[in-house]
Design goal:
The complex is a heterotrimer of chains A (328), B (391) and C (310).
Chain A (H helix, E strand, L loop, with lengths): L1 H20 L12 E6 L9 H16 L2 E6 L5 H13 L4 E5 L4 H7 L7 E5 L10 E6 L1 H15 L4 E6 L4 H17 L4 E6 L6 H13 L4 E4 L4 H11 L2 E6 L10 E7 L2 H12 L7 E4 L6 E5 L7 H15 L8
Parallel strand pairs in A: 1-2, 1-3, 3-4, 4-5, 5-11, 6-7, 6-8, 8-9, 9-10
Antiparallel strand pairs in A: 10-12
Helix pairs in contact in A: 2-9, 5-6, 5-10, 7-8
Chain B lengths: L2 H35 L4 H13 L2 H26 L7 H18 L5 H30 L3 H21 L5 H6 L27 H18 L1 H11 L1 H6 L4 H26 L12 H4 L2 H11 L7 H22 L3 H17 L1 H15 L26
Chain C lengths: L6 H30 L7 H19 L2 H25 L4 H24 L22 H5 L4 H19 L1 H11 L1 H6 L4 H27 L10 H11 L4 H23 L8 H18 L19
The chains are: A alpha/beta (328), B mainly alpha (391), C mainly alpha (310).
Chain lengths: 328, 391, 310
Amino acid sequence: MKKNLKIWLIVMLAFALFAAACGDDATTGEAEPFRIAIVAPSASNDLAFTQSIVDAVDVIKNEMGNVEVEVTDGTFVVEDAAAAIRAYADDGVDLVIAHGSQYGGSLQEIAPDFPDTSFAWGTAADTFGLPNVFAYEAASDEGGYVMGVMAAALSESAVIGIVGPIEVGDAKLYVDGFAAGAKAQNPAANVLVTYTDSFSDVALASETAQSHAANGADVMSGTAQMVVGAVSVANDAGILWFGTQANQTSLAPSIVVASQVYHWEVVLRDIIGQMDSGTLGGEEFKIDLANGGEVIEYNDAFDLPADVRQLGEDTIAGIKDGSISTGS
Amino acid sequence: MTSAVTKRRTLSRYLAFLIPVAAVVAALLVGAIMLLALGANPLEGFRELVKGAFGSKDALISTALKATPLLFVGVGITIAFRANVINIGGEGQMVAGGLLATVTALALPDLSAWIMLPGVLLAGLIGGAIWGAVPGALKAYFGVNEILSTIMLNVVAVQLMNFLLRGPLIDPGEIERGTRIPQTERLQEGADLPLLFGDGRFHIGPLVAILAAVAAYILLWRTPLGYRLRAVGLNPDASKYAGIPVKRTIMLALTFSGAMAGLAGAVLVFGSESHRMVTDGSTAGFTGSAGFNGIVAALFGGLHPLWTIPASFLFGGLLVGGNAMQRAVQVPSALILALNGLVVVFVVATDRYRKRMLARDVRVDAPEPLAPSSGSPPTDGAEPPLEEDTS
Amino acid sequence: MSEFFTTAVLVATAASGIRLAVPLLFASLGETYGQRSGVLNLGVDGIMLLGAFGGYYAVLQTGSVWLGLLIGIVVGLLLGIISAVISVTLRAEQGISGIGIYLFGLGMSDLLFQKLVGTPLPITKFPKLNIPVLSDIPVVGELLFQHSIVVYLAFLAVPISMYIINKTTFGMNIRAVGENPEAADSLGVSVSRVRYGTVIIGGTLAGVAGAALAIDLGIFQQNLTNAQGFIAIALVYFGAWRPLGVMLGSLLYGFVNAIVLQLKTLAIIPPDLSNFAAMAPAIITILALVIVARRFKAPAALTKPYSRGE
């Protein structure tokens, strides 16, 4: 027994010595780069939530130049995300982006420990009254509303389908907005809303689309990374599709009409600007149609009738100037 | 007189211990190849892995915290395995324990920590116990296989968690703000796991887990119930003839195992950074797959509660170190997950050689007068006459 | 509620249930072979994920769904061999080695997807095959005979498996090895050879299940299977280790999921209760097992590695 214990201790000591002996590398180079770290719950290439922030940071990097970007994706385990956020802050990252609503509770505890680090939390609207936490969210209902209007205008069967993941946060905003827009355009439209109760179940999303199709839907939309399954079904059935969070044209070039693309870089520029002038937090940001953070990107390969397009543009204008409300 | 024999005994024990270590190293070598393929520097990667796991006070704390649920679940697994029951419902049991503990904290007013803390931990224990008792009863009295029922109950648990955290248990602040993040409010401070050394993160969770391991050891080898559990596991028919209530014992095995996992869930909630229960819709988002990894930790520990302690610590270090490696060399997290799997496969695959080493150790022991064995854990956890030689 | 009970909706729901059952069916059939011979493989989901990515990638690069299916077979075969080595030759603890394969498959498939493909791209799907004459039968035709080819293949595998397990020597050996390996060994049956065979079959079918899933969905995403592999394992127990039972289990699970989905779409299940609806397939499966008379016992040697002379 004692010998076993000795052996364990020796091994662990060896590990520790080995680790300690390997000191930090000295970093040489020119001016200190601006370091951004992203912690996100899904994959960087999910064509949805996480991809939107990774793409945005890429844009910033290309604009600013001397930027170092570190990404920890696929971190849906909240405790692991907390550890990653803490580790990046500890490592001297300038801006830690906690891209997940569920990370908020942890961030509230971590941020005070690193007063010189700036944290950005999305999608959320609460900065906890902390001086080094920014919050950002998307008015996804706005683009949803616009596309809902266009969907109702395009729909011949007057049945419209929306596939959602779990009825929370950004997803709920979008779905509600889309439904509201469709109803506003055509009060008699039958808007089918189904939440699959999972962010990742592609098969379920696919079957949801099938069931909407069986109910006569000829225009559909949806949000979260599992919609790729629904888009595929729509493609087969010739059902039109509106996408959100990222440009989904590549998924089905013949039926995707438009996508509400998130351009988080609009918010990131503001945040970095504030950091430059010494403010590390305390403000909430929102991307919407007005500030260009949300852009309706049309699929050029799709023959969108001019009057529907005009309808869309008019709705965008109406939301921007406040004359149209999405109801959310 | 005994020196030659003792030397060989030590050598066998030493080798037996080294085998899982060698397996880990082999898995990491494969990982090194993958790192190279991705254009990352394996040496830097593994240096960061070790540093991130054990190379600083912070790292050790992270490792201990990561190891805690592994240890709880692992201890529960060892109890169940002794009764020859496979419990892969750890994930669901953790959720159930976390939920009951959370509900308890929310339901009770602000009480002193002396009451709250044991209260919520007990609630976690009970929640997990219930979630283990159900498949246990289903197996014992209805013949429903526990693999089926535990897998199904994992599904039920996560949906229950989603329902509760989005609905009745949601933070009222979320409703106000309209963001509806599925999490509870910040749970009352009385239930916070006390911190050790005043450090921001190092709570007593690891200590409670170690206590649980010791308690399990005592249960299994020092109580009649423990004897019955082991007897049923080795030979249910003989046990029945000996008058042991087999069905009830099997159910108890799953109940205890679930209770441990439930405790892990409660510790996760009240020891977490955020001090609230939060979900992203999946089970693993809350548990961190400890329900599965705990099984692996138990195996690393030779299915013995006390050896599961260092095993969990090392495995926890591997997980923490893996994440540190990811951050340092910026490979996708998916690589770390694959590496996790490789380590498990390699260690499990070489387990037979480890057992053989230990068995050799036992046989060598037989001729010489043995030192009293009451203080030390038996090799591979079973008295030789009853041991089913599976190597 | 009346909107649900229209023919069109019922038929569409049932057809959806059949589609959802397909990956479960392939995977659980494969697992049946292994378990019947005494080997539990918990890594099914990992093999499915790697088979899914392999099949997806093959179709993405070549456009041929049949090549995709073939790659799924190959990937499954390789992983089946590895699983067999671990469980049979190395006699590892079966419950746990599978988990390692699961984690590996989950991570590896995601990694390969991120590095080789990047942003998800759609692929060709299986062609639909309307069985002549039969598909024209009203109601039943649409329900049973207008599916994609892979659906027919899955259900074809059931009678084939029944035949193999019940009517061939190999099948007899499988059953013998699963019940009493010592006796089988003494009669000259090579226990390890039989188990190698069944585990490899299991792996292959899991690979097929994954490839079928990906190609049928026409896309890949991380964690595409969403832990369905574990459900498939559970269904083997539900089906009492018999192909027909396993088929019934897969269909039950698929149907309940499809029904719940349709009820949600028609707003018959209010959003607040949707979580309980999502629990339904799991609970119903357990209940079904409790209610059905438990005459079937597990293969006696299940999860026990075998070695001669003990």
